[in-house]
Specification:
By secondary structure, the chain is an all-alpha fold. The protein has helices spanning 7-10, 21-33, 39-45, 52-55, 61-72, 78-90, 98-106, 110-123, 127-134, 144-152, 161-171, 178-191, 193-200, 205-221, 226-236, 242-253, 263-274, 282-285, 297-303; strands spanning 291-292, 295-296. The protein is built from 19 helices and two strands. Residues 37-254 form the ELYS-like domain.
Length: 309
């Protein structure tokens, strides 16, 4: 029997195999959509090969042989190599069951196969199918933050916030970078302002404050309408502690939400909701006589009990 890492044995269905032009076009297009890095690129980077985007997708039989040679001659353990070959064989649309046949022949562990199925589907922008594989309990999380971030990309045609949440609650990615933190928290905010708020409290003080400010900005950037009104009501009704109250007002009066429409109104609504109408700043006092939803601020203030704390 030919060794598993022999090119002609791997591609026994067609030793002169060449990637279909439409497959190459799809891979290249999807790479752009995924911010210029496929999960295949990440896998191939483990080989230590530079210029991965020139290596994959291969554009000729010679390029394919070079790619497979890089994989089989690498220092990766045997199952990682076989998993990469399995990924490549899944690209071969005309090869029938070449990929599963290879996995059976090599006795590729199921957790490796499932992981590759998940990444391959991610690279094809088939997110629901990808999450089905990537949340299997047997899989050891690899690239968890990168996978979560890809699922948060809301400009993609099959984006679904529920998949982001399903992956997060199953895998518990570390959220190790600011980019991933912001992307995931934006998804959480869209799902529930209240749940997003309680999530902020699971983090250290600086990140708590950053998240709260992001929450405030998201509410104020929501398109005017019923959803924005509901989010604004939730925001102004949150059970903020003393420190959070301070962050809340600073974000709206001096921070990143300062220039957003309705920022001062939100502070005043919060003050009204909590009865804390003493010690208003000049900016807030200037709202006197202004109408919100048909109600005059002065009338609202006069109708509310005043707390001094």
């Amino acid at each position: 029997m030919a060794p598993w890492d022999d090119f002609d044995a791997i591609f026994s269905f067609n030793r002169n195999f060449v990637y279909d032009g439409k497959v190459i076009e799809q891979i290249t297009s999807n790479r752009r959509v995924l911010e210029n890095r496929l999960f295949a690129d990440r896998l191939l980077a483990l080989l230590g090969v530079k210029a991965v985007t020139k290596l994959y997708p291969p554009r000729s039989n010679s390029d394919l042989r070079t790619l497979v040679g890089h994989i089989t001659s690498s220092s990766l353990d045997i199952h990682h190599k076989q998993a990469l070959i399995y990924y490549i064989l899944k690209d071969c649309r005309t090869a029938g069951d070449a990929a599963p046949h290879f996995a059976r022949k090599c006795h590729l562990p199921e957790k490796y196969r499932l992981f590759i199925e998940g990444l391959w589907n991610l690279d094809r922008l088939e997110f629901r199918r990808a999450v089905e594989f990537l949340t299997e309990p047997s899989i050891i999380p690899t690239f968890p933050d990168e996978i979560l971030y890809a699922l948060t990309l809301s400009n993609l045609p099959k984006h679904d916030d529920s998949l982001v949440m399903a992956y997060y609650f199953t895998v518990s990615p570390p959220l190790a970078t600011e980019k991933v933190q912001k992307a995931f928290f934006a998804t959480l905010c869209r799902a529930s302002i209240t749940e997003a708020f309680y999530f902020t409290r699971k983090n250290d003080e600086s990140l708590r404050r950053s998240y709260l400010e992001q929450l405030i900005v998201l509410v104020h950037k929501t398109t005017a309408g019923q959803i924005r009104s509901k989010r604004a009501m939730e925001l102004t009704s949150l059970p903020l502690d003393e420190k959070e109250e301070q962050w809340f007002e600073e974000a709206l009066l001096q921070g990143s939400a300062k220039a957003l429409h309705g920022a001062k109104d939100t502070v005043m609504m919060r003050r009204l909701a909590t009865g804390k109408l003493s010690g208003l700043s000049a900016d807030l006092e200037s709202l006197g006589g202004k109408k919100v939803d048909g109600l005059n601020w002065d009338v609202l203030k006069q109708s509310m009990p005043v707390r001094n704390t």
